[in-house]
Design a protein that fits this description.
The protein is of the alpha/beta class and 444 residues long. The protein is built from 13 helices and 21 strands. The structure holds pyridoxal-5'-phosphate (PLP).
Amino acid sequence: MSLPSSQPVTEEPSIAELLAARPHLAMNAVDGLTLESVPLNAIADALGTPTWVYGAGTTRARYRALAAALTTAGLDADLHYAMKANDHLAILRVFAQEGSGADVVSAGEIRRALAAGIPPANIVFSGVGKSASDLHLALAHDIGQVNVESAEELEMLAAIAAGQNKTVRIALRVNPDVDAATHAKITTGRAGDKFGVPWGDAAALYARAAGLPGIQPVGLATHIGSQILSLAPFRAAYARIAALVTDLRSAGHAVTTVDCGGGLGIPYRDEPAFGPAGLAGALRSAFHNLDVRLKLEPGRWLVGPAGVLLASVVLNKQTGATRFIVLDAAMNDLIRPAMYDAWHGIVPIAAADAVAPTTSTDIVGPVCETGDTFARSRQLPSLRQNARVAILDAGAYGSVMSSTYNARPLAAEALVDGDRWAVIRDRQPVEALWQAERIPDFLA
Ligand SMILES: *Cc1c(COP(=O)(O)O)cnc(C)c1O
């Protein structure tokens, strides 16, 4: 949802505007905030807070919208959900049921994807530091494709393939040297970034791969970063990859697939965003006459808007001129504001709170770090103790990045699907935090 052009993008969307732009959320006069058809108060009553809640129906609808945009653009494409965004088994099962593959970045993610029912042939393995044991596991399960990020990895993979007497399909991940114009911590496609093979080295390495036993190079891959809200960097990267496909073919190599990565951004504060149709258009203009099968690896776009983090007000405090609302959720639960300076919408769950007069408020967690701040100078109603809020767009890079810092157990998780909901992870018992720890005898 884009703002009217007369309005500066620096202006924060109101609670009503945030909800209007998110059709899966609604404010019901009696039940308060609902996700799909479930009142979030019902979940918070049952599980307490902080609790993550995801919408299966919303996730499914987003997957279908993206797939439909690609089909409409006449593209032959496979979706591989980048599961690092949210790797809960139930979320993976929703994708498996849609026929989505997975983009994985570790052996643990391979195991999780398989446990959730994603067929090995639909798994693509990315990552700058795949270990020998990671690659052994990938080959043992015959996963669909390994995206190789260096000459060193290629040699290691060839040796492992020979050892297992297997042939592995690989794509070379190329660093196109494009600045994705996103947060510095999540841009991955500039020349100095650690990811991929330098643009200028790709052709030689592809030739090397084609000559190695056990290695079947099938194409190229790229991924220039995350939370990208402008099409220009995608267009620039895809143009370079398309040119490289042509060069490789002229040199006599087979190139049947291009993995275009993820990175599609979401409008956290209702910034203008191009959406699936825009991305499909950029893909089409770069690749439509190349006769390649495309892969996409979206993570955030599919699951981010579908999730919320429910929290309760611990207390209100006034410190000098600043009004603070202290929540029971903290940076250990959702680290994005502390790590990426991320903006998340915050909406009261009670209908009466949502329409009460607002004042400028800082919303913080209880952790002993100033960085444990969800929002500064946000227009919010004065919320009494125990009032609940939903932190929006928390479905991606939320629970997966949680820690137990300050001995805070991992929060509960619930999945809504239309008018049904279920607990999908129990709140971690506090004793579990030290269960694997030992006090050595010499301290007895
Ligand atoms: C993280 C990642 C993605 C997904 O990025 P999103 O911004 O969540 O879409 C895709 N591919 C690779 C290789 C990644 O590392």
